Description:
This protein is an alpha+beta fold. It has helices at 28-37, 40-56, 59-70, and strands at residues 2-4, 7-9, 12-14, 17-19, 83-87, 91-97, 108-111, 115-119, 127-131, 142-146, 149-155.
Amino acid sequence: MKTLKNIEFKVIQVGVRTMFPWGMFPFNEDIKKLTEQLNPSDVHSYVNDMMKKLMKNSPMENMTSQQSNNMKDPQMTNHEPSAQVFETFDDIYIRVHLSSEISLSQLRIFHTSNQAIIENLQGEGSRQVFTLPSLVKKKGASAQVKNQILEIKIPRSDDLQYTEITVSEKL
């Protein structure tokens, strides 16, 4: 007989195989009673509640909610401009509907390899960040306004910038 964390168990050997006697656990009867009392709808609602709590704090939820906020209609939010972010084979486009009060000379547009930033879009000091669907090049971006729609065109990057990692054996 062996002791592991204050639980005694016996290892039964049958031929060459070793089997574990699961029936000897002291809580085995309690598990049977618990599973007989479980209601599938209760389990379903519990799992749904836990997933909602988990997803509420997830970073992916924050990203997708930010992207969906960027795509909302201006009537739905308080002075939030409507925007579309989409990609073609060669470029990524961002189209933003501008209000008539916005001065084009005050707009400032920046981008990183995966984000576009527009400053002063909703007024002095405002900043709106758009997550891009793929990596973009540093140079070659352009912006133009036609019929109160700002269109930003950024060339996609084909360089995935990956590096091979060698695997060594640790002795």
